[in-house]
Design goal:
Layout (H helix, E strand, L loop, with lengths): L3 H17 L8 E7 L4 H11 L1 H4 L6 E7 L4 E2 L5 E2 L4 H16 L3 H16 L8 H6 L4 H9 L1 H5 L1
Parallel strand pairs: 1-2
Antiparallel strand pairs: 3-4
Subcellular location: Secreted
Main location: secreted
Family: Belongs to the GILT family.
Length: 154
C-alpha cells in the first residue's frame, strides 16, 4: 500500500466534498477498501483515516465495503498463506466473519477498528478482547470461523 499518503490526501477530502454536494442527498458514495489485517500501513489507514468517516458523521453517506484479504494466496491444495503469516490469515478470516455476521458497517466497523488498533500496537493476540470492547457476542463469529466460511470470503 505504497500510495497511503495519496489516499489520505485524496480519499477523505473527496468523501467530504461528495457528501456536501447536492447529488449526495440522493445517493451514497460507494467505497471498497481491500486491506491486510497485519499490514501496518493498512492498519494505520483504518485507525487514523477511515475511522474519521464515523467520527465526523459521514458514514451515513457512504456505502463502505471492507475486504480483509490483502496479499493472501490460495495454494492448489486449498491451503491459504498470507504475507504477514498465519496470524494475519486468522485475523483476516475473523474480520470477514464479523463483516458477514453484521453486514452494516456501523455495527462491524468498531470491531474491525479494535483489531486494527491492536495490530498497530503489536498486540493482535488479544483480538478476542474486541468482543468485550464492542459489546458484540463472540459465538456467531467463532461459529463462522470454525465453519471455514471466513477463510472462503477473506
Amino acid at each position: 500500500m505504497a500510495s497511503l499518503p495519496l489516499l489520505r490526501q485524496v480519499l477523505v477530502p473527496a468523501l467530504v466534498l461528495l457528501c456536501l454536494s447536492p447529488a449526495c442527498a440522493a445517493r451514497r458514495v460507494s467505497v471498497a477498501v481491500y486491506y491486510e489485517t497485519l499490514c501496518p500501513f493498512c492498519s494505520g489507514f483504518v485507525v487514523n483515516d477511515l475511522a474519521r468517516i464515523f467520527r465526523n458523521g459521514l458514514s451515513s453517506n457512504v456505502d463502505l465495503r471492507l475486504v480483509p484479504f490483502g496479499n493472501g494466496r490460495v495454494s492448489p491444495d486449498g491451503s491459504m498463506s498470507c504475507q504477514h503469516g498465519e496470524d494475519e490469515c486468522q485475523l483476516n478470516a475473523i474480520e470477514a466473519c464479523v463483516i458477514s455476521v453484521w453486514p452494516d458497517a456501523e455495527r462491524h466497523f468498531p470491531f474491525i477498528y479494535c483489531i486494527e488498533h491492536l495490530s498497530l500496537t503489536r498486540k493482535w493476540g488479544a483480538w478476542q478482547s474486541c468482543f468485550h470492547e464492542t459489546g458484540l457476542p463472540s459465538q456467531p463469529v467463532i461459529d463462522c470461523y470454525n465453519s471455514g466460511y471466513g477463510r472462503q470470503v477473506s
